[in-house]
Design a protein that fits this description.
Blueprint (H helix, E strand, L loop, with lengths): L1 H9 E2 L2 E2 L3 H11 L15 E7 L6 H7 L10 H13 L3 E11 L2 E10 L2 E8 L6 H5 L12 H17 L6 E10 L2 E9 L5 E8 L6 H7 L9 H4 L6 H16 L7 E2 L3 E4 L5 E9 L5 E8 L6 H5 L12 H16 L7 E9 L4 E9 L5 E8 L6 H5 L12 H13 L3 E11 L4 E10 L3 E10 L3 E13 L4 E10 L2 E10 L7 E13 L4 E14 L4 E15 L7 H5 L2 E15 L10 E15 L3 E14 L3 E14 L41 E14 L4 E13 L11 E12 L2 E9 L10 E7 L4
Parallel strand pairs: 3-5, 6-8, 9-12, 13-15, 16-18
Antiparallel strand pairs: 1-2, 4-5, 7-8, 10-12, 11-12, 14-15, 17-18, 19-20, 20-21, 21-22, 22-23, 23-24, 24-25, 25-26, 26-27, 27-28, 28-29, 29-30, 30-31, 31-32, 32-33, 33-34
Length: 767
Amino acid sequence: MINTFIHSVLSVKGKTILLFSIFLLLSTIFFMPMGSNANAESSPQINLVEISGNKKISDATIFSKIHSNVGSAFSKNEVQNDIKRLYRIGYFDDIQVEIDTFEGGVKLIFIFIEKPTIVSLDFQGNKEYEADDLKEKITLTSGAIANMSLITDNIQKITLFYQSEGYWLVKVVPIIREISDNAVALTFQIEEGPKVIIKDVIIEGNDSIALKKIKKVMQTKKRWFLSFITGSGIYIKEQVKADIERIKALYHNNGYIYVAASEPKIVLDPDKKKLTLYISISEGEQYSVGALKVQGNSAFSESEILADLKTTPGQIFDRGALREDISKTLDLYMEQGYAMADINPLVDVETEELIANITISITEGGIYTIGRIGISGNTKTRDKVVRREMRLDEGDIFNKKQIKRSYQRINNLNFFESVDITPSPRTEDQEIDINVDIKEKMTGMLSLGGGYSSVDKFMVMGEITQTNLFGKGLYLKLKADLSARRTNYSISLSDPWFMDKPISASISVYNEILEFPEYDKKATGGSIGFGKEFSEYVAGQISYNLENVEITDVSDDASAIVVDQKGEKITSSISPSIWKDTTDSRIDPSTGYKHALYTTIAGLGGDNYFVKSVVDSIWFHPAPWKTTFSIRGRAGIAAGFNDEKLPLYERFYLGGISTIRGLGFGEGGPRHDNGEKKGGNYEFILNTELIFPLLEDLKLKGVVFVDYGGAFDEDDDFGLSDMRHTYGFGFRWQSPFGPLRLEWGFNPDPKYEESDNKIEFSMGGAF
């Protein structure tokens, strides 16, 4: 009877209420010894905990939230906390607790009424977007629990999506229809409203900074005729909030420490299709830098720390520059082993003098060494292939710059989809463990293709490559090119760490047939080479090349230089080269440079005697809006010796995707009297490019370019007026099949039999 009474009091329309005053009465009757003093320590023991009513959620999950365990003393506060924890799971509409006597203690029975399941999910009122499109924007699906908090969250997701598309007045209401005791149907009722565009953005109160500069830092723009491409002209609440912070940052970088910007005021047109956005600015006073000092430093002197900083006394206070200076100072410490250094700028503002005194406060910490270097994620690639690219060894002093360089080198292997290097400090040992987590990608490739080239006309290509053979970093390539003018077969193998030594080795063989208008060339050859890194960025290579070339089918009107070289000749040569490469990526560089010198000396036996050298230099510089500017210059010279002429197939033929785009093969150089291209003894090429992202997820980029240069014969007089220039645009795609280039070059001054434009493509080679 007592139990029935307690149960009736505990349950009130889905709200769990524990009337512990009733339980205290029970405690007095059943558990307090007669004649003794009552005290708080007489709480009964919990001897059993039962649960019922749960169908969707497991017993184990529920018990993991209940702290009122068997064997513990009963506590009304703990039971209340158990109920709160269980409600937070989000699966229950109602939780009731019954208490009964059991074996000299009590038994707790948790009774659950679960939330119903969403058996159908639909949208109504959506005219601009299909239901399937909206389902991609939310996290709810059929079969989910009808959790009101989750439903509200998804209403917000739908609203934000519509607002990002310009439907600023959208309204979303959930309609929940009961199907059965445990099932409901959920419909999102959408009132889209008109599409609202930004008619104007008005900035008020900007007396010191020009409106143009303010609007330049903002992403929110008014609607204009190209907005259908740029996506601008739409009011997005989160974007406007971010723009307010950008405006403040602009003022902070110009000395206005106490600038304030109001919440945006939005004024709708009567038709509710356009809005005007008002932002009010209170600039405050402009401050300059007063005293600049350093405290807490012992590893470096104050003069060493302040030497290269942009922030100097007397200049306008610039918070952005100060932030860069702090980062630069932190790098100074972290490149000398102070891995846990902490640097904070303390700014003391003197409002009357309008100056900001800055103290760079440094907590140096100790010098850390490298502990364990762990490699994970590699199932194919051997640890040593990754480890040998690390610029730090276990036991070395920590150096942030070398960590960054290690990342670049591992990434440049091009074996991995992602590379993550994470330092993990152990302060008690003054050591930093380095965790290298990699995600491998397919490094074997079979590619078949065809196309059209200005040199080879129609062609088909086949290539098998394995850039990480046996997981050892070996590079194997088998290639065949077949076209109307070219037949080429080649095989090459290279090892960047020959016999596990820091020496590269390579070997290749090839067979090629080329048909030119005046002659045919048949060549069979091979090479073997060795290379070595002389320092972090400087490397070199020397190779021995042996080639057998036969010039046949010489036409009757061929030039004297072609007739002289008719027949079979052997070229035996060595090719030393040296380069310095500081680019951040070999595949898709955005900063750094590469300078190189390539030389071929023929005459170590054989029939041909010549020297050929090329100097090649390319710079990459990051530009605004994630663009990259590059400029490349090449100069080459070639000449025969020992009374032998330079072979015609070793001359410089300019024109094409790798030299001067928009010109055909050899059109950028001298010609015979009959108009045939004869190549030159000298070459000069200048390529400039602006590379910009198009689809970042697909690694697709666009490029605009201007090319300039020419090839010249040793007997020619030439000047700048003899140079050729072209321009154009194209696309670069880091595809799963290798780097792809498609470029359209325009020839503004075509000569006889030249086209005024050419479309060309290449695959697998970086420019």
